[in-house]
Write a structure and sequence with these properties.
The chain is mostly beta strands. The strands form five sheets. Strands 1, 2, 3, 4, 6, 7, 10, 11, 13 and 14 form a ten-stranded mixed sheet that branches. A six-stranded antiparallel sheet has the order 21-20-19-23-17-26, with no helix packed on it. Strands 5-12-8-9 form a four-stranded antiparallel sheet, with no helix packed on it. It has helices at 103-108, 159-163, 167-170, 253-256; strands spanning 13-14, 18-19, 26-32, 36-38, 43-50, 57-68, 76-77, 83-92, 117-119, 128-129, 134-138, 144-152, 205-216, 223-224, 226-231, 248-251, 260-269, 273-282, 286-293, 299-307, 320-323, 330-332, 336-345, 356-361, 363-371, 378-382.
């Protein structure tokens, strides 16, 4: 196992803010995270402080992707085949989302799915934009950070095993018996197995996260939004705690007898409100995720994984490059139960494992909600 360095620069950069073309009350600005450097096979997974528009604002749009730090003013996008963007999650240090997995953060300060915005390899094809008059109201009294998880796939022996954080590829000792792979085996600055055992300084590549923020400053005209994240692995252990497993594995066809693996969970909304935008987060092997009313089975949101078919950036073959969104919204009632069902394919996938097709996958549903009173969330789960 080679544990080599990566350098994080101390400063971030940004473009000048400008008024959005179609709304004189809306502003837009491109920001860049501090630069990070990776060698072939190296893994980045740690929080980085980032800049944000100052003052009290209402965020109405957010997009992000990984670009080369090559002195370009706008940033040149990095192909997923070179460096896989496992996920990025943007959050404030104190101001987290409103649930469903945030009880631990509220009690201990240990962030657990507490992000306000975030996706992964699907970033370029899954921009977030809220219709007027909605916005996520934030202020600069709380620091911003991005949890950036990127994996340099250059020269790796098993690119899929590497990007799924298979323990045997990263060389990290599993933290518990039966753990095959996932976030715990993608420790920051460790490396996946590569064909070469040594590299030169010229092999180091610099990257930055580019993120585009759209916002309004006329707060009095904004209907405030609150962010919720459903995790299909969530389990309700008691009334005041909702631990979420974050990730899970997909068994092979020969172990299940079915080409499709379904996992599900049920979540309850204790207050009236309206979901105005929702989008799923899924990994390779995913088919789709859907949220439905438990009482009637009505599907209120379905997010289909869209796979690339070519070699160009944004259309990389075999990678999830977009997920269909649900900007139409739906009403929620106090005590109403909603099911989250996530479907993965049990065929194909990892070539070095006979028991699983994919490891460390995720099944989330991110939602922006408008409501009058704070929600306290409970849930139950099944598989």
């Amino acid at each position: 196992m080679h544990s080599l360095f990566a350098i994080t620069l101390a400063c971030a950069t940004s473009s000048s803010a400008f008024v959005a073309r179609d709304d004189p009350k809306e502003f837009n600005q491109i920001f860049f995270s501090p630069s990070v450097q990776l060698l072939p096979g190296q893994i980045l997974q740690h929080p980085i402080d980032i800049d944000f528009p100052p003052g009290k604002i209402a965020i109405t749009g957010f997009t992000a992707d990984l670009v080369f730090d090559d002195n370009s003013e706008i940033g040149n996008p990095v192909p997923l085949t070179q460096t896989y963007l496992h996920h990025w999650t943007v959050q404030q240090r104190i101001n987290h989302n409103s649930g469903f997995c945030d009880y631990e953060a509220k009690r201990t300060g240990n962030l657990k799915l507490s992000y306000l915005f975030g996706v992964g390899s699907e970033s370029r094809g899954t921009p977030i934009a809220f219709e007027s008059p909605y916005g996520l109201i934030v202020n600069d009294s709380d620091k911003w950070a991005v949890d950036l998880h990127a994996i340099d796939l250059r020269d790796t022996i098993d690119p899929l095993g590497c990007r799924e954080c298979l323990c045997q590829e990263t060389g990290v000792k599993p933290h518990r018996k039966g753990y095959i792979g996932g976030l715990a085996c993608c420790e920051d600055m460790t490396r996946c197995r590569t064909h070469s055992t040594s590299y030169e300084q010229d092999d180091v590549v610099s990257y930055r996260l580019r993120y585009n923020v759209t916002w309004r400053e006329d707060i009095e005209n904004i209907t405030p939004l609150y962010i919720f994240v459903m995790d299909v692995t969530g389990e309700l252990s008691h009334a005041e705690e909702h631990p979420c497993m974050i990730e899970y594995d997909i068994p092979r066809l020969n172990n299940t007898g079915s080409a499709i693996y379904r996992r599900n969970s049920t979540f309850f909304f204790p207050e009236d409100g309206r979901i105005i935008h929702a989008v799923a987060h899924l990994h390779s092997g995913a088919m789709f995720a859907e949220a439905s009313r438990a009482s009637s089975g009505e599907v209120v949101c379905r997010g289909d994984a869209i796979y690339g078919t070519g070699s160009n950036v944004g259309n990389e073959e075999g990678y999830v490059v977009a997920i269909s969104q649900c900007p139409e919204g739906w009403q929620v009632r106090k005590g109403e139960a909603f099911n989250l069902d996530v479907f993965y394919n049990t065929t194909g996938g990892l070539t070095t494992r006979s028991d699983v097709s994919h490891v460390g996958v995720m099944g989330y549903m991110w939602m922006a909600a408008a409501r009058e009173t704070p929600m306290h969330i409970g849930n139950k789960t099944g598989a």
